[in-house]
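quick one, 240 residues, struct below
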Amino acid sequence: MDIPILWSDESLLVVDKPAGLLSLPDGYDPAAPYLARLLAPEYGRLWMVHRLDRETSGVMLLARTAEAHRRLNTQFDSRQVEKVYHALVCGSPAWEEELVELPLRPNGDRRHRTVVDRQTGKPAATALRVLERLEAFALIEARPRTGRTHQIRAHLAALGHPLVCDPLYGGASLAPDGETPAGPGSPGQAQAGARLARTALHAWSLECTHPQTGARLHFAAPYPPDLQGTLELLRFNSSR
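---
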């Protein structure tokens, strides 16, 4: 599997993680490929600083030394790392910008979803902004201010705008052959499914402080072909 490298030095390795690749080992399938295992032959031992869901693509940061790992963890814990995601969602929000502050509890139901729980959930905040409206869809910028499991997916679903191709949180399951979607949707969604067949979330950029030099670094990853193609198709349909 091709894993584009965005940055490499003695302390850091920054990659553009492909969708479909695990960040961490799978407890149910130890033989399944995951990021560090695939990179280790060339880059040696790597320390995980954060993770992306299996179907999420985009910028991911790894440490190459124990000291870099410690310093980067401190940055994440103190919210000094700025992460920006782009999400394609169902529906067109009534707002242009929204700060979602809904407490979340992971593994909160039979489907192991993260759920909004105002009584026992942990504080969670996500800043949202509409980047583009595409008839029955919208491209959203999401800036998580906390790091809860499935935070962006759960917050957008709670607002009534689940991610496209995210059946776990209510997004339409899109048929690749252009037939009627299995979930709530429209003909436009069915056409989008010909390009996109995974949860429509992309880690667009990440900004952190270099653990050795102290320089502020910014990394960005372009949309992968499936998301780019879907957006182009939706833009074409919206312009007709």
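The longest strand covers residues 125-134.
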